[in-house]
Amino acid sequence: MPTVHVPAGFSPALANEPPDRVVGSRLAATGARFWFLLAVGSLVLAGLLSLTLVVGRLPFMGWLFTDPLFFKRALVVHVDLAMVVWFQAGAATFLALALGAAIPRVGKVVAGALAFAGVIGLLAGAVMPGAQPVLANYVPVIDHPVFIGGLVCWFAGTGVFFAGALAAPAACPRILPDDALVALRASALANLVALATFIAAWRTTLPGLPAIGYYELLAWGGGHVLQVANVAMMLGLWLMLLHRWSGHTVISPAAIRWLLAALVLPQGVLPLLALAGTSRPAYTETATQLMRWTIFPVVLIVLGLGLRHVGRHWAQRAAAGNWRLVGLAGSATLTVLGFILGSLIRGSSTLVPGHYHCAIGAVTLALMTAAYDFCAATSAGAPPAMRWRRVQLLCFGCGQAVFGLGFALAGAYGLGRKQYGAEQHVRSVGEYLGLGVMGLGGLVAVAGGLLFLAVMLRCIGTWRHRSPQPV
């Protein structure tokens, strides 16, 4: 029987598998590539838009930009690409890698077509004449049928894929460790709960409300659940990276199921509350309290178990894989910093974006770190430019932390959020200092993001010359 080369960190049991499993693994890698392309493509656009947003926040540059709607349109597209498309496509990438061969082909094609059409709709809607940005929390929109249609197509496509991933049997032998796969499937379930909440809210939210009130209520519950889905994905990536660093599973399947059940299952009440009416206080307050009290206990438990795992296996570590710890440490630090800043929020100031930029930066850094392993898994031979990965992870992680702290400092002095250019009123030295720190951190984070994209695009460029490796 022919042997199969398996990339470092993946299950060596596949080396002895028959050719039909090898073909299935190649198909899984091909499907995962599609979602990875969507993820990286969305991050390219979101990264470029984030540079515009950073410049628009700098106090000495405000005179150049007198139309705040320009930045608000850019902010809408940036947030939806960076917080919806990037994260959901990232989760789909690793689920497709692990389960893609077991998901029915029709479902994968339908999901992919809808998702791709959704991204096109988001971009096209942003340039429609007369389109008005609505800066609702979690899922901001541009109030135009083309943009809204793009969002609907995207969520429908990912919903089809995540449903297929939940129904698909796990491959044997496993491509991902059991604890990581449980967490990724929990992320898929949370994404479906978010979709159900969006649909329920759409049915009960009064259409006669002002645009900001309508879309705020529509996205509030589902948007909170999306953050839970992102956290579950991040935990899965932490566990996967720790396994690849040490060669050992971090948490038993039973324990991780209980932990992820405590994180995800309570969110199941939100579709029911949305059906009862989004104007009721129970809908908005329950979503807030669930995010406040269900995320941090599970994350801190997994983080503690991860630290114990590193301590146990430090002496036996492979030096070549230590770059993974850079990304893991940065993601964990941003997570804890996000928890601290979140606990300090008392009103609507830039402390709020300081908190959530640390939180989403933690998920992004975990996904970036895992992306290097993905490139190694789906390319023949060593992917190009991997020597930059440690520098890139440090650059993005440190920049994002400084960015969030700058926002928090300005917010501590009362600076309002969602204001750009000439619309922004800076009154104190503390606000100037906070925005200056924010601008510096933002530029460093953008530099790290652009370096990541350069490496990823080089890896993607090799795909047409190399067949995907069985994984």
TrEMBL record:
Keywords: Membrane, Transmembrane, Transmembrane helix. The keyword Transmembrane helix applies. The keyword Transmembrane helix applies. InterPro entries: Cyt_c_oxase-like_su1_sf. The chain crosses the membrane at residues 34-55, 75-97, 109-127, 147-168, 180-202, 222-242, 254-278, 290-311, 323-342, 354-372, 393-415, 435-457. This is Cytochrome C and Quinol oxidase polypeptide I. It comes from Lacunisphaera limnophila. The lineage of its organism: Bacteria, Pseudomonadati, Verrucomicrobiota, Opitutia, Opitutales.
